Amino acid sequence: MKIIRRSIIIYILIISHFCVNAQTKLSEKYNLMPWPEEVVDNDQKFSIDENFTIAVNKDKINDRLFNATTKFLRRLSGRTGVFIDKGFALTANQIKKASLRINYEREGELELHENESYQLTVLSSQIILTAKTDIGILRGLETLLQLSANTKTEYFFHGVTIKDSPRFTWRGLMIDVARHYQPLNVLKRNLDAMAAVKMNVFHWHLCDDQGFRVEVKALPKLHQLGSDGQYYTHNQIKEIVNYASNLGIRVVPEFDVPGHASAILTAYPEIGSKDITYKIERRAGVFDPTLDPTNDKTYQVIDALFSEISQLFPDKYFHIGGDENKGKHWDENIKIQNFKKKKGFKTNHELQTYFNIKIQDILKKNNRTMMGWDEIFQPNLPKDVVIHSWRGNEAMLKSAKLGYKTILSKGYYIDLLESIKTHYSTEPIPNNHDLSEDQVKNILGGEATMWGELVTPVSIDSRIWPRTAAIAERFWSVKSVNNIDNMLKRLESVSFKLEELGITHIRNRDVILRNISNNQDITSLIVLSKICEPLKAYERKKGGTIYKSFSPFTRFINACTPDALDAISFNKKVDSFIVNSNDQSYKDDLVYFFDKWVSNNEAFIKINNNPMLNQLAPLSKNLADLSILLKKGMSQKLNKEEFKIVSKYMNNLNKPFSDTELAIIDGLNKIISTLK
Amino acid sequence: MKIIRRSIIIYILIISHFCVNAQTKLSEKYNLMPWPEEVVDNDQKFSIDENFTIAVNKDKINDRLFNATTKFLRRLSGRTGVFIDKGFALTANQIKKASLRINYEREGELELHENESYQLTVLSSQIILTAKTDIGILRGLETLLQLSANTKTEYFFHGVTIKDSPRFTWRGLMIDVARHYQPLNVLKRNLDAMAAVKMNVFHWHLCDDQGFRVEVKALPKLHQLGSDGQYYTHNQIKEIVNYASNLGIRVVPEFDVPGHASAILTAYPEIGSKDITYKIERRAGVFDPTLDPTNDKTYQVIDALFSEISQLFPDKYFHIGGDENKGKHWDENIKIQNFKKKKGFKTNHELQTYFNIKIQDILKKNNRTMMGWDEIFQPNLPKDVVIHSWRGNEAMLKSAKLGYKTILSKGYYIDLLESIKTHYSTEPIPNNHDLSEDQVKNILGGEATMWGELVTPVSIDSRIWPRTAAIAERFWSVKSVNNIDNMLKRLESVSFKLEELGITHIRNRDVILRNISNNQDITSLIVLSKICEPLKAYERKKGGTIYKSFSPFTRFINACTPDALDAISFNKKVDSFIVNSNDQSYKDDLVYFFDKWVSNNEAFIKINNNPMLNQLAPLSKNLADLSILLKKGMSQKLNKEEFKIVSKYMNNLNKPFSDTELAIIDGLNKIISTLK
């Protein structure tokens, strides 16, 4: 028995080793993201021509699949130029032999742990996509679209057999529409993009100090006074919820209480903790306006609000925020202080828990489950509350241990504009935890968070995408899919394909550069934008410009992104050069960049005729001048005087330019050390 | 008395001559479009900095001006990068000395002949904008935005005094959303662009053979069966009407009857003229399905439909189409033939007039004025019907003579993709008419028409803009503003500024080229796209591909536009060369292009790895090979054999490539003649 067991183990080890290797090889070949659970390829391919048809194994094609198959056909036709003759999917009755046969059992429900698995087989004769639910079919259709390829004479799908299902059931993206309102079309295209990488929760941050964004019929002052006219009507919310549902995406609303309350209190100051005139906040930051937890009217307002909102969002979960309440206005209010004493609360946290429990009653009445940021966590909270971890892992691990469901956003704050490597390497389940197998199951997944202080409809896509695709892979794929270089390769392909869905992250870079150059030749600006990155968010707030919600977000920084393409490439070349510093070809690689930056400055000078461009002049000039010296350094020793000048240039370059930083400083420093 | 009169006339002539000259000079300096009635400049300028403020002379800022001033501030801040401190306009009470003072008398009404005039004075100390109505203020704000400029160190407004008012009261753009559905955001950005060039009527073509695009509660089968799920809800229509109203734009709905009825009859076949199974039409063209004018139920349906629709559109005018009914199904229906005999109608036109008069009763009941395409014109029509001329000027002139109000679209069919010169040169009031002064007043203006067979949300903007800005000038400015070169210069500036409003005509060219190249380097494709133009629409239908509504519109042709930029430039250089064929510098200009096309082919070959690109290979190669020979011809005589080869290349190039045509054929032919 023991021997048999051992050989089984050895067999499994061999197989799994073989699989990992095969997987690695395949992930070099196919640009699938998130990477599926199991991929096996065959040497076949399915040709895409005008006869392409889809059959669904039902008498009637439901809304979700009508939508999904129609979009599938349009995207396929759009990217291949093939004039597909049948513009819509058919039922199995209507067509005997279809190119793509879709088989599923039942309509999926938008709830936790719904079955999203699918199996996909592409042969030269036929494609078969099978799933338990129509939501699984949607996930499989996205995989199939990622398998399209071409030769010079035809388009085709790669021949494969794929079995796939998600690691986590909660794979979310939060979009904050309070700091900057985002119109429906921005949300819709981002929902499409989410579905393309198999995300399934849209967390909609709908109110904050800077705006209250929902029509509330019972409390009309909320949207009338709290939104500058930029809010979603009931019908628009239903439109988004329905749009998401067709994509197999749940929508979780967030109304942040009791802090972050400037907009609410602009409408209903009588439930505030301080007797002041409240105004919609225009700055970014953490502010003091807070609801009064000792006032009955506060609960009446929240009751009316949450009851009305619950009608609009069918999802079981309701996010109440609950974060960043420093309690300053509570401390300054004698009535509230007396209340605390009377109740025996020692801390504001206890008072907030009192508030939370009352809020939870209201939500329960509306058949909703409360969730909130990790500040709401307190061991005496009802057990069905979901804890949303953002400050660290501890709250998540502690609450999972105590039996609370929990999701993670710490590590997925995409608004910080850090390298995608950081986010991709963040494991939702940390390695050294002491949770039992059952307790681990309390970790439902995670969410990328797009806080909105610094984004408008023009720039928001470039802050979310393509980065969020890699985070989506972290939530969907098994833990062992974690090779960064391979991820970056696949991400590049996914990034381009997102254009098909209307995501503007690529196209709007040039729109912004044309804007700042007043429609001159932007070639030199593109070069600069590829080596500059936005200051990481908190630096930007500290060192840089102070932004208001109506500040311009159409400047050079808004055309730049994290992981600047040429910077990555240059820094890599520098590393190769360091190891092979006597090899001429590695020197040539660097000289290529130096020459480019020198001639780029000449092009830049030609267009530099306005204040926005002029802010970049020191960047362009110092980089060009430095490049001349470093190029010289590649072929001869620099003297002391020259090294001094190099230092001066480096000092000049080591500053923010129009709120960006030069992302090649490290590489340049490495070169300089080598030359010494 | 006579002498005095004569000197007054001479004086007027001198003054007006002087004005015209000054105007011409100023229109070289300022990129205003439409060109205002009167512009006088001073040597002042108003500096734009963070202290910029707006004051409105009312106690409360109404919705329209809140919207207009807020957008004004965002656009100004966005294009200058200036962090304007006050993000919203203030009332005169709230601020004593504002940068921009807005004074108006009353809210404008969205109706014919409403006052849209304004006066704008920009001095170094202040800007004053005055108008009778808030709509006039909107028009003035757009002019002011067109006056922004900069030096290297600051942004400013040019110092001017402008008096302005429109020539015509009806300055429209029709968008057909039946052939291809256009989402709300596409319509909104186009409304913004219309307002930017002072257009004031959005004519919304809402149903046709290919789709019925409005929710109808009384007749739900219309949108359920006639739209593939792509229709506007009541709330969405109200949203667009309100959006337009805030821009001072009227919205006129069109429901095309009795022809173009496939979608309506798919829902209600019982009111069709033939007993067949109707289906939503997928092709482009003119089709036979027609409502039965002898069936009472037809009028019941239209009554229910038009009564419900009238509630959604406050505008007085209601367009019933009425075009292109060939009456084939009427001729094939014995009941209808008998009805004609009984009524004594000799032609189908008489039968259609019978139908129109019944429709007009329905509209009258709903307090709406009927308008229709010129086919509805018949001298016994009620006098308040508006005739929309599209087949020629005759109907327009005839109906104006008979006292009907009329507008012109013949000459403004932008879907034909002709050069903007053609449209710009089309005068709404032809020179040799025999109308009295009062009769001329019946010509209310015109409309550009964007028929939707060949456009999707990705490409529609590039078919409408920037061209429609020149048509807008034709409708707004005085007749004498008609210099084409000057218009083209100003149009280029307007075109770029439209990006600010989200118009995608520039950015989406590259999106499409990335698509067809699968995200390779698109430089060589950009070069080709700048010398190729889409086949003019009717050729495209005749010679080229047959499109269905779900065909791909993401191919090379969709990245090309009329008035291809390099083609215009090349053809001009050729003309200069012809006149100065011995001057080396003119030869050099041409050689520059030849060299470019030779090296471009090398770049193209590198990326040519898929079927969509491969369609362009003969174009790129023949042009490169021809260029080599023509370059040789610039310095030495070509021999007979070489001329033969030149002819072969020209033959090869004189064909459509991926539904485009090479727009430099004329120029090339001219060069070849010279070389002979």
TrEMBL record, chains A, B:
Keywords: Glycoprotein, Glycosidase, Hydrolase. Residues 168-477 form the Glycoside hydrolase family 20 catalytic domain. Pfam families: Glyco_hydro_20 (PF00728), Glycohydro_20b2 (PF14845). This is Beta-N-acetylhexosaminidase. Residues 32-147 form the Beta-hexosaminidase eukaryotic type N-terminal domain. Gene3D superfamilies: Chitobiase/beta-hexosaminidase domain 2-like, Glycosidases. Belongs to the glycosyl hydrolase 20 family. The keyword Glycoprotein applies. PANTHER family: BETA-HEXOSAMINIDASE, BETA-HEXOSAMINIDASE A.
